[in-house]
């Protein structure tokens, strides 16, 4: 699955994944993402409204791509889900996925916004956030539109542009026994249905 999202498992373990690659993986796993770069967040108030919207729902998840340095922690680029919002103190509850390093903790919403703005050295774009749900209409926000260009930056570290990736994927022929058909479509593990590889789907746009 990772290879179809323009990176290898070894690379993901070694250096992690970019925000566009994270979006790609979400789509490959049957989720509908709304992805926004930190540089596209116009105001703290809009971000606050979106956080309130998502944290008050049981079937939508808010994932932050942020710089640990900006938030005063060790390390740099990181992903964490938000589990709640404290309106009285304007705090978000971060469920850090590196539990060996940090337990769940509260972060000021303003700090979270600032930590989404530093540039990722791989993509040259800021970090940001992703709203995920299995239902497409659940991720549609009255406050944000998907950031433009997100789905074209799939493998810049290897020097490939999205048209090149499309050409590569069109030419790949993989046996059905490995989960792919002759048209290079990928099988959805949950439904058993075949569809386009995520790199192609994401590079085009959301469905």
Automatic annotation (TrEMBL):
GO terms for biological process: cellular detoxification of cadmium ion; detoxification of copper ion; phytochelatin biosynthetic process. Gene3D superfamilies: Phytochelatin synthase, N-terminal domain (3.90.70.30). One of its GO terms (molecular function) is metal ion binding. Signal peptide: none annotated. It holds the Pfam family Phytochelatin. Residues 1-137 form the Peptidase C83 domain. Its EC number is 2.3.2.15. Keywords: Cadmium, Metal-binding, Transferase. PROSITE patterns: PCS. This is glutathione gamma-glutamylcysteinyltransferase. It comes from Elysia marginata.
């Amino acid at each position: 699955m990772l290879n179809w999202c323009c990176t290898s498992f070894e690379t993901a373990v070694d250096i992690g994944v970019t925000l566009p690659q994270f979006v790609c993986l979400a789509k490959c796993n049957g989720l509908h993402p709304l992805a926004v770069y930190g540089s596209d967040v116009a105001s703290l108030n809009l971000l606050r409204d979106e956080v309130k919207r998502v944290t008050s729902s049981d079937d939508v998840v808010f994932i932050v791509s942020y710089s640990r340095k900006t938030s005063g922690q060790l390390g740099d680029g990181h992903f964490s889900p938000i589990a709640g919002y404290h309106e009285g103190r304007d705090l978000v509850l971060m469920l850090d996925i590196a539990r060996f390093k940090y337990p769940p903790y509260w972060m000021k919403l303003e700090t979270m916004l600032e930590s989404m703005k530093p540039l990722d050295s791989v993509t040259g774009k800021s970090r940001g956030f992703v709203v995920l749900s299995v239902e497409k209409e659940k991720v549609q926000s009255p406050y944000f539109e998907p950031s433009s260009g997100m789905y074209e930056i799939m493998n810049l570290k290897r020097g490939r542009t999205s048209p090149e990736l499309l050409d590569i994927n069109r030419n790949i022929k993989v046996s059905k026994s490995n989960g792919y058909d002759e048209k290079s479509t990928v099988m959805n593990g949950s439904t058993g249905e075949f569809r386009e590889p995520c790199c192609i789907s994401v590079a085009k746009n959301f469905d």
